[in-house]
Amino acid sequence: MPQAESSSRPEIANFDDLVARLSEPELRLPKRLKQVAKFVLNNPEDTAIYSIVELSRMADVPISTFTRFSKELGFAGFSEFQSVFRQRLLGPKTTDTDRRRALADTPLRDTTSGIDLDDPNAVFDAFIHAGIDTLLRLEDEVDRSVLADFVSTLAEARTIHIVSARGAFGVGAYCFYGFSQVGKHANLIDNTGAMRAEQIRFMQPEDVALVITFDDYTAETLEIAEKVVAKGHRLLCITDNEMSPAARIASHALYVREGHLGHFRLQIPAMALCQSLIVSVGRKVSRGSRKQQRSQAADPS
């Protein structure tokens, strides 16, 4: 068991405890240790399986950084730290997912090592397997109660202001299109002409902002998120892990631990999550409209 750092800080007994510890606002980690924290949160299966040498290579940090990170959290060393991830992997929560993940043949890894990039078939297969892995991970890890709250908040909002940029912009743009198609008023904050502040100026109290951002967390997106919260508006966030700056200020956050192949981030899980939100919100909007129509028909005055 890890050693508690103080009487006010409980031991880390399982993966949920670890996530809670890393999410503490008062936790201040050096840049390298923060890099490890993000890596292990985004790659819990790999952290459970691979050696410290292999994980260090995948996370692009020295081996000693993993050891320092483990001790910083109160563990005696890396092996004790890794046991938390192995416990999570072998526990009852992931048993069914692990069986289905076997269909993917190879585990998701944040590397193109071993892939013949000159062979289109090999590249295609790598993306397909990684996509299967990330979708199974999303199905297993998404917080269903938060998902329900997301849908309710989006459906009740007058307007959904969608904030995304760079790698996440494609997902945000599709959300704008999808919500518009199901009858939900949406506004895409695209920072045209660097006028992001002007684009959120007329947000109303009954509006909500949906921020979509992943590591490396675009500065412009975070700036908008902070301004939205400062003005007292509701903020929902889709991001990669509990250490995301956007997650810490959002009223609700959904986590998509995206896979990577080299420098390319897979958008498959984020898109699947957003499509499910669009369909669910669309159903609520449609039922609400029908109910209102029946009420007006019954009381023409």
From TrEMBL:
Residue ranges the record marks as coiled coil: none
Keyword Oxidoreductase among UniProt keywords: no
Domain HTH rpiR-type, first and last residues per copy: 16-92
GO biological process, one term: carbohydrate derivative metabolic process
Source domain of life: Bacteria
One Gene Ontology MF term: carbohydrate derivative binding
Keywords for this protein: DNA-binding, Transcription, Transcription regulation
Domain SIS per the UniProt entry, residue ranges: 150-287
Matching PANTHER family: GLUCOKINASE, TRANSCRIPTIONAL REGULATOR
Name this polypeptide is given: Transcriptional regulator, RpiR family
Species: Tropicimonas sediminicola
Lineage, highest ranks first: Bacteria, Pseudomonadati, Pseudomonadota, Alphaproteobacteria, Rhodobacterales
